[in-house]
Amino acid sequence: MGRILLVEDDSSIVTTLSAFLKSEGYEVIWAAGQTTAVHKIETENFELALIDISLTDGNGYAVCAALKAQKPDIPVIFVTASGDEYSVVTGLDMGADDYISKPFRPREMLSRIKSVMRRTHKSSEIVELGNVKIDTTRANVSKDGNEIILSALEYRLLLLFANNQGVVLTRAKLLQDLWDVGGEYVNDNTLTVYIKRLREKIEDDPAQPVLIRTIRGFGYKAGESDT
User: Fold this and answer.
1) Which runs of consecutive H residues, i.e. helices, occur in 94-215?
2) At the topology level of CATH, where does 126-222 sit?
3) What is the DSSP string of 147-161?
């Protein structure tokens, strides 16, 4: 039914809620604190985040900010022990879609999850590059039906190629577009590394790429060869 990022440092809640959600068909990705959560945001794909505001490592507001900066369409439900007005308002102002106060019953949480998913659901928009499919609504990538985990920069790079199939993209153009989209500096050496990593994940034979081909002296061209 979907993958959920659970950011919570209370092991008893994690155990109980994870088991319940799994029994309801959800896959739960767990992070105990801010550092781990931010790493999961950068490396994992999921459809909703449950974020505890009070964490022993960092806080839920920072996790939400990191999530919205990279994946703004992913809905967030804040979990608060206090239930005070300030926490609720701050969370909603940051872009959270709902909140729930501790203690809560698992079925109450499930109801909130389903409600938020219904409100934020969009029809999937699929972009295909050979046998690779990109669900741009959910930021999910799959090859031959199997999910591929990409970093945020790898995902943006893949989208650039997929949306410009048949067009020769120079390295300067790629660097410029990655800067414009991501707002972070990417140098020429970093681009080489990320193209190599992306090929290793999407090509059948990375040594002989067919989806992202090198056009010597010019740059790269995406799309299977028509020759």
Assistant:
1) 106-120, 152-162, 171-182, 188-202
2) Arc Repressor Mutant, subunit A (1.10.10)
3) EE---HHHHHHHHHH
Q: Which residues pair with 146 in a beta bridge?
A: 143
Superfamily for the 2-120 domain: Response regulator (3.40.50.2300)
- Answer whether 220's CB lies under 8 Å from 168's CB: yes
- The residue extents of the domains of the chain are 2-120, 126-222
User: Hey, what are 223's tokens?
Assistant: 């799309």
Q: Which of 103, 99, 92, 101 is nearest to 68 (CA)?
A: 92
Q: What are 28-65's pLDDT values in tens digits?
A: 999 999 999 999 999 888 889 999 998 989 999 999 99
The pTM of the full predicted model, rounded to 2 decimals, is 0.55
Query: Hey, what's the torsion of the CAs at 109, 38, 73, 23, to 10 degrees?
Result: -30
